[in-house]
Amino acid sequence: MKTIALITLLGLALPALADRLPMPSDAPASFKEECGSCHLAYPPALLAADDWRRIMNGLNDHFGSDATVSPKNGPKIKSFLESHAGRADRLGNAGHPPRITQTQRFIRKHHEVPAKFWRDPRVKSAANCEACHRGAANGNYGEHDIAIPELRD
Question: 0.85 cut: is pTM over it?
């Protein structure tokens, strides 16, 4: 009987754990400084290693901006992202150029969000995790910690 209760509790806890993506403790300061200067320094687990490699190799045109990092910091950041990347088989294709918002994982988690929501001026885009996920900066993307802004017509 105790075994069944334990299995049930673990089954309930696993979905919540899947939405915890803490920043690995070995994140180089340059990663948080460089990537976090324009947007959330996304947890590496949100993209596969090949996708991070493509992003790092194309920083001169990073979604319309020049996000080039120094030759000293670039290899450190790239190595960090690749070593802590998510599994491609679980994330799915991120597109060209790679976008977290194009992965099957992201789409599966956000399928119920109406398209007009992403255009709300307070949200701006699907890539703005912090607009709804209050704990995104700390790696918490759980459903219980979401604060969805009320949509305006």
Answer: no
